[in-house]
Design a protein that fits this description.
Layout: E1 3-4, H1 6-10, E2 12-16, E3 22-27, H2 28-42, E4 59-62, E5 65-70, E6 73-78, E7 82-87, E8 97-101, E9 106-111, E10 117-119, E11 122-125, E12 128-132, E13 137-139, E14 144-147, E15 151-154
Parallel strand pairs: 6-8, 7-9, 8-11, 9-12, 10-13, 11-14, 12-15
Antiparallel strand pairs: 1-14, 2-3, 4-7, 5-6
Length: about 160
């Protein structure tokens, strides 16, 4: 399974406009403070509590399956080939894990709340996973996305 660790691949921070155009490329060392401040503004306050943050308020809007949380692990078991889940928030705190068991299918995770998604834990899926959040998606230095298919994150 491919592992995506953005900081290892790019070695720089891309500042992208809402239209997807790269506005500036900055070296990570020069952006460390900026990146830390950005993560503090998108991470829910419970990210600094004892249990890592996991997605909240999830419900299938299309397709079928179950969503269960146990401590720092949230598991989605999708029983149909395709699924759409609406979430109030979708962040994975450091030490947290989201496991999406969608076979070889696809799951669209649509965030309806007002906070950006911060992936600083592990997001795993057996198939393809889409994460749509109009408020933004940040994959932190410790964030990992592991899929059996593909992964797409977008603000639209």
């Amino acid at each position: 399974m491919p592992v995506l660790d953005v900081s290892d691949i790019f070695g720089s921070l891309l500042c992208v406009s809402s239209h997807g155009r790269v506005r500036a490329r900055l070296r990570l060392s020069a952006c460390a403070l900026l990146g830390a401040a950005a993560l503090l503004t998108v991470a829910p306050s419970s990210a600094f509590a004892g249990t890592p943050v996991t997605p909240q308020g999830g419900a299938f809007a299309a397709g079928q399956g179950s969503i269960a949380a146990s401590g720092p692990i949230l598991t989605v078991h999708q029983t149909t080939q395709h699924g759409i889940i609406n979430w109030q928030s979708f962040s994975v705190g450091r030490g947290g894990q989201v496991v999406i068991d969608n076979g070889t299918g696809a799951t669209l995770n649509r965030v309806t709340g007002t906070q950006a998604s911060a992936i600083d834990g592990t997001l795993t899926s057996t198939g393809t996973t889409f994460l749509i959040n109009q408020n933004g998606v940040v994959i932190g230095k410790n964030g990992k996305v592991i899929t059996g298919g593909g992964f797409v994150a977008s603000t639209r």
